[in-house]
């Protein structure tokens, strides 16, 4: 990562202030004053006697408990972000208040933006229970119409019993799964996200978080980076 980006992500100031600080010789890298924006790997960066974090991009997965909202402030409900060690993070997609499970949070805004673009068709899998037996899953394969005239992308449903199963979507519309079931005169009674791309919630306890592994971060960059090339060719 470039020195200027490290300066900004460590909240030392803007890019302009970073350039000024470099010009004034206020930043050292491994105890040597730098005079230009250089690439930093694991070197020690110091600005105004403060050691800067040279890996400031953070990636977490958290197991959202029911009752928490995916917001930064809310007058009624606790916000999921308060369970994380850093308040300066952004949600990669949001779950409803009563939905539980996997949420990714990061301060890598470029990656977050790509992950939330509908063009990338990133699969998200949820375990669900529904009020009435779901005996015919063909409407999901064909794409269910919600909100009167919005056709959802085809979804994969696998049933464990008449009222329980998993559903995999490749888009993230507001209340999408609940609305799909309402369109079929059924009702979701519980919803729990277990996968996002290849990233699995696994045994992470409710309310706990962990950092994503290098492989998981690369996977997210890979699935978005690869398809972005295809999109720009269209
Ligand atoms: N679909 C929903 O209806 N709710 C969620 O929280 C996620 C997907």
Structure description:
By secondary structure, the chain is of the alpha+beta class. The chain folds into two domains: 3-52, Structural Genomics Hypothetical 15.5 Kd Protein In mrcA-pckA Intergenic Region, Chain A, CATH 3.10.290.10; 59-211, Pseudouridine synthase, CATH 3.30.2350. 24% of the residues lie in helices and 27% in strands. It is built from six helices and 15 strands. The protein has helices at 3-9, 15-23, 109-115, 138-142, 176-183, 214-233, and strands at residues 27-29, 32-33, 45-47, 50-52, 59-64, 90-92, 100-106, 124-130, 145-146, 150-151, 156-161, 164-169, 188-196, 199-200, 209-211. The strands form three sheets. Strands 5, 6, 7, 8, 11, 12, 13, 14 and 15 form a nine-stranded mixed β-sheet that branches. Strands 2-1-3-4 form a four-stranded antiparallel β-sheet. A hairpin with a 2-residue loop joins β1 (27-29) and β2. The protein is elongated and about 70 Å long. The two termini are 30 Å apart. Uracil binds next to α5.
Tags for this entry?
Pseudouridine synthase, 234 residues, disordered C terminus, 24% helix, 4-stranded antiparallel β-sheet, 2 domains, 6 helices, binds uracil, Structural Genomics Hypothetical 15.5 Kd Protein In mrcA-pckA Intergenic Region, Chain A, alpha+beta, 9-stranded mixed β-sheet
Q: Class of the largest domain in CATH?
A: Alpha Beta
Which overall shape is indicated by the principal axes computed on the Cα atoms? elongated
Number of helices: 6
Q: What is the CA–CA distance across the termini?
A: 30 Å
Structural class: alpha+beta
- Average residue pLDDT: 94
């Amino acid at each position: 990562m470039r020195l200027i980006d490290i300066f900004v992500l460590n909240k030392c100031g803007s890019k302009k202030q970073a350039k000024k600080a470099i010009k004034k010789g206020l930043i050292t890298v491994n105890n040597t004053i730098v005079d230009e924006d250089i690439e930093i790997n694991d070197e020690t960066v110091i600005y105004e006697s403060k050691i800067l974090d040279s890996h400031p991009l953070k990636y977490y997965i958290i197991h959202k408990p029911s009752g928490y909202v995916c917001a930064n402030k809310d007058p009624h409900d606790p916000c999921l972000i308060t369970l994380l060690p850093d308040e300066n993070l952004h949600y990669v997609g949001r779950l409803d208040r009563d939905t539980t499970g996997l949420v990714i949070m990061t301060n890598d805004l470029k990656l977050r933006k790509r992950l939330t673009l509908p063009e990338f068709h990133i699969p998200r899998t949820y375990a669900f229970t529904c009020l009435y037996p779901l005996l015919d899953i063909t409407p999901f394969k064909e794409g269910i119409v919600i909100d009167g005239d919005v056709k959802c992308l085809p979804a994969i449903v696998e049933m464990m019993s008449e009222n329980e199963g998993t559903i995999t979507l490749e888009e993230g519309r507001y209340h999408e799964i609940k609305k799909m079931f309402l369109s079929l005169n059924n009702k979701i009674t519980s919803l729990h996200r277990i996968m996002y791309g290849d990233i699995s919630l696994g045994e992470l306890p409710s309310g706990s978080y962990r950092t994503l592994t290098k492989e998981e971060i690369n996977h997210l960059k890979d699935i978005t980076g690869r398809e972005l090339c295809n999109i720009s060719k269209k």
